[in-house]
Amino acid sequence: MALIEAVHLRKLFGEVVAVDDVSLTVESGQIYGLVGSDGAGKTTTLRLLVGALKPDSGSATVCGHPLASQGEQARSQIGYLSQRFSLYEDLTVLENIRFFAEVRGLTQQEWLPRCMELLDFVGLAAFKGRRAGQLSGGMKQKLGLASALVTMPNVLLLDEPTTGVDPVTRQDFWQLLIRVINQQELAVILTTPYMDEASRCHRIGFMRHGRILVEGSPDELRRKLEGRIVEIRGGTVAELRRRVKKLAGIEDIRAFGDRLHLRVRPGQADLISAQIAKSRRGTTSARAIQPSLEDVFIYLSDYDNKPAGKTHA
């Protein structure tokens, strides 16, 4: 069942087109990832879906309620976690969750057991009396998630929920999120700059200049570059780049740590791998690999910028 539907959403700020003809559908139990660089339109899309902004054209429906005509009913089904910590730093952890529960009309008999259950769930029960301003970045994100869940929404909208926290906290947050989805069958849209997080989503939409360039499952998107990524190792990145930049058939060269990823033209991966390996008598490793989502994102960004008839190299 589709809990979130957006149809041809468009939003302008003056002459700037922030969201351009965005359509998407998210079903119960699904995570939809919006991925793109800063300014791509991800946050504006979420604000349109939560009803904080009105579109200039297009429409959105949440749990069967059109935002344009049934905004309050739609918003009652949404839990929203903004990119920046937006809770009250002078209030305690428990007071913050209580505030959001009572704003949504929950009585003490309803919100108190629910709040304690959530604090235990996110690992903050021992800190219920601590002021929110004294929490670490990761704990603030967990408090934000608990506050978004207190009214038992059917839809979660999360705007870069793990930006600025350490890798361990990111992992903890995702474990919490997956547990919530499995238990409550929510529909989730999240924005993220991290490709490892995008790979956990059921579907991904790559955004650029306010448009969704392409969407699909992680595997579907990786298949767009099947057989076209060659990884090379050996020597410094600068040395490797000098050796391969003049080879025919290479469309793009990118450093990934101490390795290079070459995006090659279709059918050229084995030939280029052999040429590179032969040039140093085996001291350089060159092999065709499965594309990563980073490879796909770079490809889509390059393709979107490429003038007609030109090949990026």
3D structure, described in words:
- It is a single chain.
- The protein has eleven helices and 14 strands.
- The strands form three sheets. A six-stranded mixed sheet has the order 6-7-8-3-9-10, sandwiched between helices.
- The protein folds into two domains: 2-216, Rossmann fold, CATH 3.40.50; 222-305, Alpha-Beta Plaits.
- It is globular and about 75 Å long.
- By secondary structure, it is α/β, with parallel strands linked by helices.
- Mean pLDDT is 88; it is low at 307-313.
- The protein has helices spanning 42-50, 71-75, 93-103, 108-122, 137-149, 167-184, 195-198, 218-222, 237-244, 269-279, 293-305; strands at 2-13, 16-27, 31-35, 57-62, 65-66, 78-81, 155-159, 187-192, 203-208, 211-216, 229-233, 250-256, 259-264, 285-288.
- The two termini are 44 Å apart.
Pattern of helices and strands: EEEHEEHEHHHEHEHEEHEHEEHEH
The CATH first-level class of the largest domain comes to: Alpha Beta
Q: Extract low-pLDDT stretches.
A: 307-313
The largest β sheet comes out as: 6 strands, mixed
What is the helix fraction of residues, given as a range? 25-40%
Helix/strand/pairing class, anyone?
A: alpha/beta
DSSP strand (E) fraction?
A: 25-35%
> What would the principal axes of the Cα set say about the shape?
globular
CATH superfamily of the largest domain: P-loop containing nucleotide triphosphate hydrolases
Corresponding CATH architecture of the largest domain = 3-Layer(aba) Sandwich
Distance between the termini: 44 Å
> What's the total count of β strands?
14
Number of domains: 2
User: How are the strands of the biggest sheet laid out side by side?
Assistant: 6-7-8-3-9-10
Annotated CATH topology of the largest domain? Rossmann fold
What value does the average pLDDT take?
Answer: 88
So how many helices? 11
Radius of gyration: 23 Å
